[in-house]
Amino acid sequence: MKIVRAALASALFLGLLLAVYLVHTRYLRVDVVFYDALQDVVLAALVAAGALFGLRSFRVFNPFEKCQLVLIWLLVGYALAISVPTLIDRSLSFYILEKLAQRGGGIQLASFEDVFTREYVKEHRLVDVRLTEQQASGTIVIDGDCVRLTPRGEVLAGFSRFFRRHFLPRQRLLMQAYSDELTDPFRDGQPPPSDYGC
To answer: pLDDT, tens digit, for every residue of 133-145?
Structure first.
């Protein structure tokens, strides 16, 4: 009996999450896809928790079990927020598939660098999207014409570099050859002086 009620309560949460997400993405403003999807998860979980704690049909659960269900919903919602809208929004892999479909199913291998640099960055407004996300995350500030790391950004950049160097695969398949190049993409040292520093 409890398992059926838990399944019904969880179905209610998932239905609410889908409804909240669709209303949010179609009719409201979205600043950062991932953060806004997380807000949708929390809102759906709160409404479903209200039903779980308030309706007679769910009195079969004790308070601890109800809290466990809400926690499970939050974790499932978090996984969905990352795995569906955020992944599709940010994924270069999905872009490749969409671009191949747009071009009739095939693109010459030698043209992929041009497709990325000339089309992907422009079509998906990557610079605007990523700068917006980083500002919302508090990792950068835009000071006039200069984009600067915040202290939080410096910590995250340091963590990312540490993780990349020590915990990413050292033998990763890249176009039919195994390489460790992506564990330290800046291994050649400091870039040459340029005119874009500030």
So the answer is: 999 999 999 999 9
